[in-house]
UniProtKB/TrEMBL annotation:
Gene for this chain: dapB
Assembly and binders: Homotetramer.
Organism: Sulfitobacter mediterraneus
Reaction(s) catalysed (UniProt annotation): (S)-2,3,4,5-tetrahydrodipicolinate + NAD(+) + H2O = (2S,4S)-4-hydroxy-2,3,4,5-tetrahydrodipicolinate + NADH + H(+); (S)-2,3,4,5-tetrahydrodipicolinate + NADP(+) + H2O = (2S,4S)-4-hydroxy-2,3,4,5-tetrahydrodipicolinate + NADPH + H(+)
Chief localisation class: cytoplasm
Protein known as: 4-hydroxy-tetrahydrodipicolinate reductase
Length: 274
């Protein structure tokens, strides 16, 4: 019998949690070893299959991540920053691969992942889709080819329940553009315009966030100059693109040296000519 990789899904009832569970069930390479929700969530203690509207599976949703992770080779985590830090410590103890899709983490929260990454593999990306990761490489390349006569703007659109802005993807694209230009994003990011802002500062990278309805995730990187505009665009119309990337990362991380990785590593795109 082929051995499959046991994964725990945290935030099991969430938009991504449910998509991940569906993708694990459809995968011949993974099996569900745990489903975690926050304490007090109505799914806790119930059969996962039944709460998802299907037949019972015998796998109960738990609010005890340690127990779930201890039986898993990987944890796939699309939750919230504080929860992700808690899971990182537990994944490190269990030497389980921790795939982090959670966005909205502060610089301090990202730095706090470092101790865990000394013991276990962490794969973290603000967007797990092949398309967006390829777009970061294209963005870097275009930014490197153009000078500051081309104003760079990152425009993102998401559903009305999203809690963080700019999106993790927008920040990845901004980082790629800044890298292409040879500058630090923190020095040039313009993240909120309102009122009398004054003229645009040359060299800035601007961010705009749209929130509405059920938009899954749309990102434009605009290079606007006098007389022309270049727009690089990615549209996600189905969350399965993120889930498939996360499942791939969970397999890729097995047997790797502890450390922090991203989806460019998983997809082998780090060597794409810049
Ligand atoms: N990297 C990527 O490719 C993608 C990242 N995301 C990010 O994933 C995160 C989740 O997104 P959605 O699924 O849309 O949100 P959601 O709000 O639908 O789901 C989050 C789930 O996490 C659960 N949760 C919160 N704290 C918890 C804890 N301590 N223990 C266990 N469960 C806990 C919540 O109860 C909820 O069910 C967001 O940060 C979002 O930006 C979303 C899509 C793709
Ligand atoms: O919250 C979401 O939905 C998404 N979040 C990620 C982000 O912040 O970029 C990825 C995707 O765009 C969907």
């Amino acid at each position: 019998m082929t051995q499959t990789t046991g994964v725990t899904i945290t935030g099991a009832s969430g938009r991504m949690g449910q998509m991940l569970i569906a993708q694990v069930n459809a995968s011949g390479k993974h099996h569900l070893a745990g489903a975690v929700e926050r304490s007090g969530h109505p799914w806790v203690g119930l059969d996962l299959g039944e709460v998802m509207g299907g037949a019972s599976t015998g796998l109960m949703v738990t609010d005890d991540p340690l127990e779930a992770i201890a039986n898993s080779q990987a944890i796939i985590d699309f939750t919230a920053p504080a929860a992700t830090l808690e899971f990182a410590a537990l994944a490190a103890q269990a030497r389980a691969v921790h795939v982090i899709g959670t966005t909205g983490m502060s610089d301090d929260e990202i730095a706090a992942l470092e101790p865990a990454s000394r013991h276990a593999v962490i794969v973290r990306a603000g967007n797990m889709s092949l398309g967006v990761n390829l777009l970061t490489q294209l963005t870097k390349r275009v930014a490197a080819a153009l000078d500051e006569d081309y104003d760079i703007e990152v425009i993102e659109a998401h559903h009305n329940q999203k809690v963080d802005a700019p999106s993790g993807t927008a920040l990845m694209l901004g980082e790629a553009a800044a890298e292409g230009r040879g500058v630090a994003l923190n020095d040039v990011a313009d993240r909120g315009r309102d009122g009398i802002t004054g003229a645009r500062k040359r060299g800035d990278i601007g961010f705009t966030a749209i929130r509405g309805g059920d938009i899954v995730g749309e990102h434009d990187v605009m290079f606007a100059a006098a007389g022309e505009r270049i727009i690089l665009r990615h549209i996600a119309s189905d969350r399965s693109v993120f889930a498939r990337g996360a499942l791939k990362a969970a397999l890729w991380g097995q047997g790797r040296a502890p450390g922090q990785y991203d989806m460019l590593d998983v997809l082998g795109l780090n060597d794409t000519p810049g």
